[in-house]
């Protein structure tokens, strides 16, 4: 028969089994320490969970700041820049706050007097600064006037020394006056004279053809063929006589049309030479020629009364007298 166990026996056996299970590696473990270990493990898990959640939230916030306009929108940034661009006068702001507090009786009498003293000192300092500025300006004006007076005195002394001893480089006063008069005379020269001087100083010329001068530069009697104002010089020669380039240059015109008949223009910088009424042209437009090169032959083409070379010299399209530059011999 199966033995019947009483309830007390069952409770006793259960307690023995429970006590045996509480022994670990032969060491007795207090019953409530098991609960502490489990509680500690649970708290560590919660901390780790909360840390992960916080990290995730921080990551989301930084992502939104970087990739969105949720916090620092463009409008907020613009308003901030506009605010920072204001020029705030903190001294004036302080005075306004002080006046406001005095009117509303937030300060006592002593504080108000101290504030008034501060404001009075500020005004005095500002007036002193303005006064110093005016004084400095006056000093600068006085110094400038003194410098001008000194320069005038020096110039007067130099002029006096020049009159008594002589001009610069040993020249006397009369020579200096002559030089000044020469400069004034140069300024009164005509444009034609200035052009002639420029051409003679910067260019070299030779006779374009051998012959006799038949019509000179300037005014002459007008006919149906001959113009009233002659812009060049006519040199009579037999038809076929060689014509040579009077200067180096580039052929800019080689034409058979117009009153000049067969004619050539050669340019070099600001100066142009023209050879007209030729019977034959030997160069073409764009060709470079040297002084003395044969370029054409004498003829009587265009408005002409007989075989001759019409020769012109121009500077910037202004005619000059060729006889002032070249010796034609007659």
What features would you describe in this structure?
The strands form three sheets. Strands 3, 6, 7, 8, 9, 10, 11, 12, 13 and 14 form a ten-stranded antiparallel sheet that branches. Strands 1-2 form a two-stranded antiparallel ribbon. Strands 4-5 form a two-stranded antiparallel sheet. It is elongated and about 170 Å long. The model is unreliable at 29-34 and 161-173 (pLDDT under 50). The chain is of the alpha+beta class. It has three domains: 7-86, no CATH class; 91-121; 196-324, Glucose Permease (Domain IIA) (Distorted Sandwich). It has helices spanning 7-21, 31-67, 74-84, 90-103, 109-164, 173-187, 191-202, and strands at residues 23-24, 27-28, 212-215, 218-219, 229-230, 233-236, 242-244, 249-255, 262-268, 271-281, 288-289, 294-298, 308-315, 318-320.
Low-confidence stretches: 29-34, 161-173
Number of strands: 14
Structural class: alpha+beta
Gyration radius, to the nearest Å? 57 Å
Order of helices and strands: HEEHHHHHHEEEEEEEEEEEE
Strand content range:
15-25%
User: What is the end-to-end distance?
Assistant: 177 Å
Could you state the CATH homologous superfamily of the largest domain? Glucose Permease (Domain IIA)
Integer average pLDDT: 75
Classify the helix fraction into a percent range.
40-55%
**CATH level-1 class of the largest domain:** Mainly Beta
CATH architecture identity of the largest domain: Distorted Sandwich
Number of helices: 7
For the biggest sheet, the summary is: 10 strands, antiparallel
Tally of individual domains: 3
Shape: elongated
* CATH topology term of the largest domain: Glucose Permease (Domain IIA)
């Amino acid at each position: 028969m199966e033995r019947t166990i009483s309830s007390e026996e069952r409770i006793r056996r259960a307690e023995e089994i429970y006590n045996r299970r509480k022994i670990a590696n032969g060491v007795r473990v207090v019953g409530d320490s098991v609960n502490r270990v489990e509680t500690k493990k649970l708290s560590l898990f919660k901390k780790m969970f909360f840390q992960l959640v916080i990290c995730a939230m921080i990551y989301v916030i930084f992502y939104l700041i970087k990739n969105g306009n949720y916090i620092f929108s463009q409008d907020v940034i613009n308003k901030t820049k506009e605010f920072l661009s204001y020029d705030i006068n903190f001294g004036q702001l302080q005075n306004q706050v002080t006046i406001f507090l005095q009117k509303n009786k937030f300060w006592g009498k002593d504080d108000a007097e101290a504030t008034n003293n501060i404001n009075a000192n500020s005004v005095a300092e500002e007036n002193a600064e303005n006064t110093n500025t005016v004084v400095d300006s006056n000093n600068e004006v006085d110094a400038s006037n003194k410098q001008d007076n000194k320069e005038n005195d020096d110039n007067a002394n130099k002029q006096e020394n020049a009159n008594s001893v002589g001009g610069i480089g040993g020249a006397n006063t009369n020579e200096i006056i002559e030089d000044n008069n020469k400069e004034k005379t140069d300024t009164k020269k005509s444009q034609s004279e200035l052009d002639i001087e420029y051409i003679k100083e910067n260019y070299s010329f030779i006779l374009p053809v051998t012959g006799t001068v038949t019509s000179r530069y300037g005014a002459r009697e007008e006919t149906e063929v001959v113009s009233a104002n002659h812009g060049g010089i006519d040199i009579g020669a037999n038809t076929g006589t060689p014509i040579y380039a009077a200067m180096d240059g580039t052929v800019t015109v080689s034409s058979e049309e117009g009153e000049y008949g067969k004619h050539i223009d050669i340019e070099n910088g600001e100066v142009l030479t023209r050879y007209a009424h030729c019977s034959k042209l030997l160069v073409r437009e764009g060709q470079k020629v040297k002084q003395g090169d044969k370029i054409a032959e004498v003829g009587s083409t265009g408005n002409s009364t007989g075989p001759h070379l019409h020769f012109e010299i121009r500077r910037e399209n202004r005619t000059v007298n060729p006889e002032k530059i070249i010796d034609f011999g007659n």
